[in-house]
Structure formats: structure tokens, C-alpha cells
Amino acid sequence: MTHGRFRKERNVKLIAIIVGLGLIGGTAVAKEVTAEMKVPGMDCAACTVVIKQALTHTTGVKTVDLNVDKRMATIVYEDTQVTEPQIQKAIEKSGFKTEPSKK
Ligand SMILES: [Cu+2]
Q1: Are the beta carbons of 84 and 61 closer than 8 angstroms?
Q2: How confident is the model at residue 102, as a pLDDT?
Q3: Distance 50 CA to ligand 1 centre (A)
Q4: What was the pLDDT predicted at 79?
């Protein structure tokens, strides 16, 4: 920390630093987000194994829950590390199309 020549200036700098840290802290705090999507082609256990493998190898993915009966994938992910479109891409790379889930 440098010592400002004027107290006032230093205080302004301090405030700026505190505000800055607050902003950085706010965005850096990882949030766990749940994504739900339909995977129409996922119709048996073998499919879930393939999809699960693809997702567990995707950085930021925390948990993967696949429901064959409902053809639904529920993925909990860290929103600072991965995005929902990236998760969709990972599923599609493993050979399955995804659709947004309708609740
Ligand atoms: Cu299958």
C-alpha cells in the first residue's frame, strides 16, 4: 500500500479499493446453478452412461442426474466455470440432442 500525500486522496483511494474488491468478490463467488434439459434420444442405461461420462468430464459440472423415463437431464454446475450452452454442447458432442425443458 502506498501512502498518499493527502489524507483525502488516500481515503478516496481506499473507498475505491473497497468498492472494487466488493465488485470482484461479488462476481468471483461461485454460484451453483441447476440446469434442466430434455434429451429425447436418451432411452436406456447405456445412453446415460455416455452422457454422464461426457458431463462429469466437463469442468464446472457438479452433479448429473439423468432420468431415462422422462428423458430429462438435471445438471448442477458452477456458474463461474461453465455455462448452460457449454453443457448442452458437451451432451451433443456425446451424440445426443438437447431441448429446453418445459416445466
Ligand atoms: Cu440407449
Answers
A1: no
A2: 73
A3: 9
A4: 96
pLDDT in tens, 4-18: 555 666 666 765 655
CA of 4 to the centre of ligand 1 (A): 67
Tell how far the Cα of 49 is from the centroid of ligand 1, in angstroms: 9
Q: Give every residue of the chain whose pLDDT is below 50, as ranges.
A: none
Say how many Å lie between the CA of residue 8 and the centre of ligand 1: 68
Q: What are the chain's domains?
A: 1-29 (no CATH), 32-100 (3.30.70.100)
Q: Residue 46 C-alpha to ligand 1 middle, in angstroms?
A: 5
Query: β-pairing, 99-100 with 72-78?
Result: unpaired
Q: How many degrees, rounded to 5, is the angle at CA 25 between CA 21 and CA 27?
A: 125
For the chain, how big is the Rg over CA atoms in Å? 21
Cα of 45 to ligand 1 centre, how many Å? 6
